[in-house]
Design brief:
The protein is mostly beta strands and about 350 residues long. The chain is about 15% helix and about 35% strand.
């Protein structure tokens, strides 16, 4: 058959084609969320040009993400040991009731392009969501929050007062983003999306992308140890998401009383903050305003105020605002390990 392209979506490696044909018997789609490890599955395709080839195997894993060598943005694969080879891509993965539970898309190889017993399939539930959008509009519109984020690690639980080591920490707010308009702030920890908890950054990205632009979502966040809920109207995800992250973003918190921009030094750190001992805690100075206190500069770590240790921006702010004098003494640490104490006049 000759086919016309209805629409494509590179971010999931899916496309919809249209053919003119009669007397066809379409397969029914099953619910891929009901698949369990060990379930028997059947793969159909044309490996090496051998049409109508059928192989079988079991579900080896579900929810596979960040598979090496697979350049698909949104990964939530079913892994199977059914024999899948070049030519199987786009073919169905069936359960024993003959329902489509996945679309075969990739294999792990030893470099020769031949099946090694590890194959990956796009779940049917995800495929249907994409297909329905492509059929309706020829393109896929995804929700966009406009933040830079990182997964919560175990050390964040006690540091930020979290209920569990799940969620994402907001590292940055992109300029003119839905997140900024809704009042989301740097170092907010998002622990639930529309009432649903999630494990990691990849799952969070998928949850946001699955919502259509202009729809409102509820974010359960922890800010300075206190849970609160924000409502955000999502925007349209930019076509080039990587390029959008290069736009201006706010990646620190203002402390007006000191004329500084700061952020909490987390256990997972990058850039110059890796120079500090991995056990060191404190508040990183990432920017200074005009007429900022002498002796306080970017790259230093605030470890105490008036002799009181501070580990987070919340603790620093509390210590400064509770000071009963017009000045405070900041204990500062340099990456070299050298310490200094600076007396700073507060801006009330």
């Amino acid at each position: 058959f000759e086919a016309t392209i209805v629409g494509t979506d590179a971010k999931t490696d899916l496309a919809v084609l249209k053919i003119n044909a009669t007397d066809l018997h379409p397969l029914q789609f099953g619910d891929s969320s009901r698949l369990e490890v060990g379930d028997w599955v059947i793969a159909v395709g044309a490996p090496f040009g051998l049409t109508q080839t059928v192989t079988h195997g079991i579900v080896s894993a579900v929810g596979r993400k960040r598979v090496p060598g697979v350049g698909i943005d949104y990964q939530d694969f079913i892994q199977t040991d059914a024999a899948i080879n070049p030519g199987n891509s786009g073919g169905p993965l069936l359960n024993l009731r003959g329902e489509v539970v996945g679309v075969n898309t990739a294999i792990a190889t030893r470099g020769d392009g031949v099946n090694a017993g590890v194959a990956f399939t796009i779940p049917s539930n995800l495929a249907l969501r994409i297909v329905n959008q492509l059929k309706a509009a020829g393109t896929v519109r995804r929700g966009w929050l406009g933040i830079l984020h990182a997964p919560v690690v175990a050390a964040d639980v006690e540091l930020f007062g979290l209920p569990a080591a799940r969620g994402v920490v907001v590292n940055g707010i992109l300029q003119d983003s839905p997140a900024g308009a809704a009042g989301l702030e740097v170092e907010d920890v998002i622990v639930a999306f529309n009432g649903r908890s999630f494990d990691d950054s990849d799952e969070f990205r998928a949850l946001v992308a699955d919502v259509l632009p202009d729809e409102e979502v509820r974010l359960l966040i922890v800010r300075d140890g206190v849970q609160r809920e924000l409502t955000v109207k999502l925007g349209l995800q930019p076509a080039n998401l990587a390029a959008s992250r290069l736009n201006r973003s706010e990646q620190s918190r203002a402390l007006a009383e000191l004329g500084l921009r700061v952020r909490t030094l987390r256990a997972s750190r990058s850039g110059p903050w890796r120079l500090f001992d991995e056990q060191q805690r404190g508040v990183a100075v990432v920017g200074v305003e005009p007429n900022a206190p002498a002796g306080v500069e970017s790259g230093l770590l605030i470890t105490a105020v008036n002799g009181q240790a501070v580990r987070t921006v919340a603790e620093l702010r509390s210590a400064v605002r509770s000071a009963d004098r017009p000045t405070v003494k900041l204990e500062l640490l340099e990456p070299s390990g050298d310490k200094r104490i600076v007396t700073v006049e507060l801006r009330r």
